[in-house]
Design goal:
It is a single chain. By secondary structure, the chain is mainly beta. It has one domain: Lipocalin (Beta Barrel). The protein is built from one helix and eleven strands. It has an eight-stranded antiparallel β-barrel with strand order 1-4-5-7-8-9-10-11. It is elongated and about 55 Å long. The model has no long low-confidence stretch (mean pLDDT 91).
Length: 185
């Protein structure tokens, strides 16, 4: 069985703004070939437009690169340089959906991810948490989404050899989103 809008109690067509106080954009990458480093972006925004069907949904989002936080200030500064994100030249990562579809119990969000001036198609595998009204009468929707990208595809090629002959950084980066959005009046 494939999901449809009718599978979600309270499905509502409308324009929703991501609430950054109840949302997060995180990433992880293999480090030294033995562990994973995680980080997040602290400043981001996004809009979700839902229609009468899941397939009518459109999503746009932007992340401020300088807001990167890996809990290590020196590493964060290095990530902002031209070795990685070149934050002064490319201050935002952006995502614009090109299609949304249901596949079994998942929602797949196809779109164009732009990072460091390079745009590539990606697919986020998502889960719609549902729709709810908060204690102040505001309509909310919640969702989770995840994708894996190859960093070199976006011009992020910096790496260094380790003493054992491995590489400092892995090639795959997992991007995860946990979000809550509010219906706009």
């Amino acid at each position: 069985m494939t999901l449809s809008a009718q599978d979600f109690s309270g499905w509502q067509a409308g324009t929703w703004a991501i609430d950054p106080t109840h949302s997060e954009v995180t990433f992880q990458i293999r480090h030294l070939a033995i562990s994973k480093v995680r980080g997040n972006f602290e400043q981001f925004s996004g809009t979700i437009v839902t229609g009468d069907a899941i397939e009518d949904t459109k999503i746009e989002a932007a992340v401020e690169v300088k807001s990167i936080n890996t809990n290590q200030a020196q590493r964060d500064e290095h990530l902002r340089t031209s070795d990685f994100f070149a934050a002064d030249e490319f201050p935002q990562l952006t995502f614009v959906s090109t299609g949304v579809r249901a596949e079994d119990d998942d929602i797949l969000i196809d779109g164009d991810l732009t990072m460091r001036g390079v745009t590539r198609p990606v697919t986020f595998r998502g889960e719609l948490g549902g729709f709810e009204t908060d204690g102040w009468g505001n309509r909310k929707l919640g969702f989770s989404a995840r994708t894996k990208i190859i960093r070199k595809d976006f011009g992020l090629t910096y790496n260094a050899a380790t003493e054992s002959g491995g590489l400092l950084l892995g090639e795959d980066v997992t991007i995860s989103i946990e979000a809550q959005a509010a219906l706009q009046a």
